[in-house]
């Protein structure tokens, strides 16, 4: 009997335990462990990180004069030169014939105009004399006509014959006056011929002046390319001459390596971010430098290589002194400050998600549940984003929310417990 009672008690305990476990399991919520951060107020600096090529701000390529042969090359790549140093000399062909012909053409044009002026002067004098004669004859005719009106015997005298002769002379004088040409238009044409001849002479003189017999350094610098070859009437390219670097076709190139800048090539995504005046930080060979964007090209350029075509926009950065340690031609790491906002609400970049419609959102923890909040973004850096609306400072948000986190998911903050 006692044995049956004990068995019954044990069975009852087991049943109660099973029921209790089921009720406990039914009431227990499964929480997803998440890492969080607080929405804060502060500042954001946005940078464009890229590379730039160090180059000289002052560079010049010198070319050979027309119709010349290289007589001597006085420098080689790597030479330091001073302003005024003779780099290359040339045997220049004679250009005096072209100048002489232009001078002759101008002289002929001037002579032709002078001939016209002499003719105009002669015609003017002839016109004056003719007008004087016409006036004199007209006066005589008027006098005879007055006499004719008063003298009944006028026709019987010699005065009638004289009147006829005067009228005939007046007609001849008027015909002579009409035949004197107006040379105004021809004078204009002569002036145009002189202007053209003078322009041609100026051009010939300019060409002669440009056909200098030497290239002279305009500033202190270093020779970075030499393509001129003694005896050649045509400067060859750097590759054909076996030289290194330089501008193809230039006889000599020199650069001022004491005044350097950084050149950045921007793709279509970053080009709109960079503006003149933005500050920049540069790093080269474990040394840091500062600078400012001084130039952004108005149009992009396309370059072709074996791998295809690349289209970029060039921007230059003035590098502040000191520039010690920079080496022209090498790349430097550059961070350009493209945006800056202060005292704004911000969140870590890894807290932001984007749905299929392009809307941005974060998950805020409220009562141990993930609550999806749409946010309007402002300035963004690599690590942070400005929030214009959607959350408030102090809100706790989920970092790197996985796909399992949905609106209403029960979550547990594991940030302070290391995920346990």
TrEMBL record:
<dbReference type="InterPro" id="IPR058637">
    <property type="entry name" value="YknX-like_C"/>
</dbReference>
<feature type="coiled-coil region">
    <location>
        <begin position="92"/>
        <end position="147"/>
    </location>
</feature>
<dbReference type="InterPro" id="IPR050465">
    <property type="entry name" value="UPF0194_transport"/>
</dbReference>
<feature type="coiled-coil region">
    <location>
        <begin position="173"/>
        <end position="207"/>
    </location>
</feature>
<feature type="domain" description="YknX-like C-terminal permuted SH3-like">
    <location>
        <begin position="345"/>
        <end position="412"/>
    </location>
</feature>
<protein>
    <submittedName>
        <fullName>Membrane-fusion protein</fullName>
    </submittedName>
</protein>
<dbReference type="Pfam" id="PF25989">
    <property type="entry name" value="YknX_C"/>
</dbReference>
<dbReference type="GO" id="GO:0030313">
    <property type="term" value="C:cell envelope"/>
</dbReference>
<keyword id="KW-0175">Coiled coil</keyword>
């Amino acid at each position: 009997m006692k044995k049956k009672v004990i068995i019954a008690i044990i069975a009852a305990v087991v049943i109660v335990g099973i029921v209790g476990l089921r009720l406990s399991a039914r009431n227990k919520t499964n929480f997803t462990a998440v890492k969080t951060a607080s929405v804060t107020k502060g500042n954001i600096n946005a940078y464009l990180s890229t590379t730039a090529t160090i180059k000289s701000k002052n560079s010049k390529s010198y070319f050979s004069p027309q119709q010349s042969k290289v007589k001597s090359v006085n420098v080689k790549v790597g030479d330091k030169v001073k302003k005024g140093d003779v780099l290359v000399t040339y045997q220049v062909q004679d250009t005096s014939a072209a100048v002489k012909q232009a001078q002759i053409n101008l002289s002929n044009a001037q002579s032709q105009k002078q001939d016209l002026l002499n003719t105009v002067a002669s015609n003017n004098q002839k016109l004056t004399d003719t007008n004087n004669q016409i006036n004199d004859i007209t006066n005589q005719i008027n006098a005879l006509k007055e006499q004719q009106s008063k003298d009944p015997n006028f026709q019987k005298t010699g005065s009638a014959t004289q009147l006829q002769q005067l009228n005939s002379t007046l007609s001849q004088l008027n015909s002579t006056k009409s035949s004197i040409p107006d040379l105004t238009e021809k004078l204009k044409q002569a002036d145009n011929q002189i202007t053209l001849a003078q322009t041609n002479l100026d051009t010939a003189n300019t060409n002669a002046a440009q056909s200098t017999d030497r290239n002279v350094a305009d500033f202190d610098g270093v020779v970075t390319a030499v393509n001129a070859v003694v005896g050649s009437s045509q400067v060859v390219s750097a590759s054909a001459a076996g030289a290194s670097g330089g501008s193809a076709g230039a006889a000599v190139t020199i650069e001022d390596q004491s005044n350097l800048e950084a050149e950045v090539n921007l793709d279509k995504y970053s080009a709109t971010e960079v503006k003149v005046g933005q500050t920049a930080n540069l790093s080269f060979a474990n040394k840091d430098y500062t600078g400012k964007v001084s130039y952004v090209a108005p149009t992009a350029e396309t370059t072709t290589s074996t791998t295809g075509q690349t289209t970029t926009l060039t921007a230059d950065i003035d590098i502040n002194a000191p520039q010690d340690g920079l080496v022209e031609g090498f790349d430097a790491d550059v961070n350009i400050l493209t945006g800056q906002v202060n005292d704004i609400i911000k969140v870590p970049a890894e807290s932001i998600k984007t749905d299929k419609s392009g809307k941005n959102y974060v998950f805020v923890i409220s009562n141990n549940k993930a609550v999806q909040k749409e946010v309007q973004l402002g300035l963004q850096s690599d690590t942070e984003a400005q929030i214009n609306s959607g959350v408030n400072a102090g809100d706790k948000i989920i970092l790197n929310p996985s796909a399992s986190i949905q609106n209403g998911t029960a979550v547990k903050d594991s940030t302070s417990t290391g995920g346990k």
